[in-house]
Design a protein that fits this description.
The chain has 13 helices and 14 strands. By secondary structure, it is of the alpha+beta class. The chain folds into four domains: 124 residues, Multidrug efflux transporter AcrB transmembrane domain (Multidrug efflux transporter AcrB transmembrane fold); 96 residues, Alpha-Beta Plaits; 91 residues, 2-Layer Sandwich (Alpha-Beta Plaits); 78 residues, Multidrug efflux transporter AcrB TolC docking domain, DN and DC subdomains (2-Layer Sandwich). It comes from Chitinophaga agrisoli.
Amino acid sequence: MVHHIITWSLRNRFIVIVLAAGLFAWGCFAVQKNPIDAIPDLSENQVIVFTEWMGRGPQLIEDQVTYPLVTNLQGISKVKYVRGTSMFGMSFIFVIFDDNADIYWARERVLEKLSTITRQLPQGVTPTLGPDGTGVGHILWYTLDAPDVDLGEQRAIQDWYVKFALQNVPGVSEIASFGGAQQQYQVTVDPNKLLYYKLSVTDVLNAVRTNNNESGGRKFEMSGIGYIIKTSGYLQSLEQIGNIPIKTQNSIPIRVADVATVQMAGETRLGIFDQDGKGEKVGGIVVMRYGENADAVIDRVKAKMLEVAKGLPPGVKFDIVYDRGALIKQSVSSIKRTLIEEMIVVSIVVIIFLFHWRSALSIIIQIPVTLAASFILLNAFGISSNIMSLTGIALAIGVIVDNGIIMSENAYKHLSERYAQKKAETAA
């Protein structure tokens, strides 16, 4: 078989050259399309279901939320196993699918199942899906360098301006905010005053909830002009919350301010984010989607940051604290340098030992053609260009060179023997 292939190749050199050129061009196209990352993604094919029920203990969360979700999600097609974790006020369900299952198909199946499970959960508890990212999807961390801005305002800038702008970048799954204080209206009830006015916490909650709403009316025409009637009732200040009436006693309205203290404060925090020991910072984590090119996504995020920075308040700027793009470029540069060095060394060794430039040229041509063709297989199997895959390719160059040297030396030997035999026949 090999003999026939070699014979056919020798008789059809032009076709072989065209096929090799076509394979090299296809390989170069595959190199451009292959996603680049620093580390291989070995995480499981999973969908995360997050449920929040604040104020409840882990045991109650386990019994009322985690257990019903785990038992019902186990019946989904292509699910290997389901893991659940319960903690104070939160529940996490990790649905692990088969490796060959499409992640977005898996997310659809989980959403379909959740639509039937929700009625089994406590009132007001709604499970949500986590981002469509992987365990190594944290490609960039940044903080806001704003020395003259308080943490509450920094967090507001991050949550209501920066986050929404960066989430529009193609390839970004989520911008996870961290640090600072999430501002909120807080109504601190005085139990003694509630007892004095014969009120309950539920009365205060209902009063605030019912007075923070808008409702529509109807359309009516007058003098040939149509008018839309609606009420504007959303609360917009501390004073409006304090003036909400709860109940009327002896023709005197009891307001929220009479039984509670209304203030603007930060949400209760369980930790802080400190940078370089210089104080607390506010920032975000860029999470990449499944199967995206990490290097390209990082470049797009940085370009978007330049646009977003123009709308930040004076004195506020971005400070990138973790950038996987630098590691990616370093890794690719190192592999490229290794490949070039190996090609040069191989050329010198072949020329010195064979002392035949055509044999050396044939071996040198094999290296880029084989490397380009290997990226076709990487794309076919969904493998990215990372430290491990590129290192494997670099190590495989030795096999390519050995094969070329053996074949060249074998051909050179047979040609020499054939030439000596023909010369002897001519002399006889």
